[in-house]
Amino acid sequence: MVTYSIYSDIGNRETNEDSVGEKHNENAYCFVLADGLGGHGRGEVASSLAVRTVLDSFDTGGTDPEFLGKCFEAAQETVLREQESSRELSDMKTTLVVMRIAAGMIQWGHIGDSRLYVFQSGKLKSHTPDHSVPQMLVASGEIKEKDIRFHEDRNRLLRVIGAEWGRRSYDLSEPVPVRKKQAFLLCSDGFWELILEKQMQKTLKSASSVQEWMDSMVAIVKEQGAGKNMDNNSAIAIWVTQD
Fold this sequence. Notes:
single chain, five-stranded antiparallel beta sheet, 6 helices, 31% helix, globular
């Protein structure tokens, strides 16, 4: 059984450049989140294009073993094509994170600094690494993982949808089997930078439903963002359990 909660908030910005979406049928589920870059609404165009492209791809090939790679490639092609149609849209870009559940397996992919967190039996197991300058500094040992949230170059992304790729720029996970007590969180940086991983885990352990988990995390994000110029903040929380 799959239950989920979807949340998106404009924060203190003029436009919500985050886009979120979900589709499912009797055979599969698809969850997608994107955080647009470019300002003045252009990021909103890029993120919505990417999300719509992924969900359209799910309609026609949601159970295809190569679905994830194909939908990232399709999103890239769609955004690049739209960039060429208008000078106003030429700089728009977006992050993208996608998760697919099908045939008893779960797989995800990402590009940029929107994240997917993986929890098992109430404990955080992993999260996707950002494609950003601070993440690169973590990899080289110059800073610690916990320093990413407050690093001065936190918003400098190295890979996104809408930038030319010399090679494949998105990352795909290995498929994992559906198990009891699995939980996942897809979220934009405006969400995860205002809630620590230990808080995600604590609220997960105390929640009786996926909606309660989301509500508890949103309360922390809003409390931590109060009085600040809050970015758009969006998330999709998912519980996967076997009957």
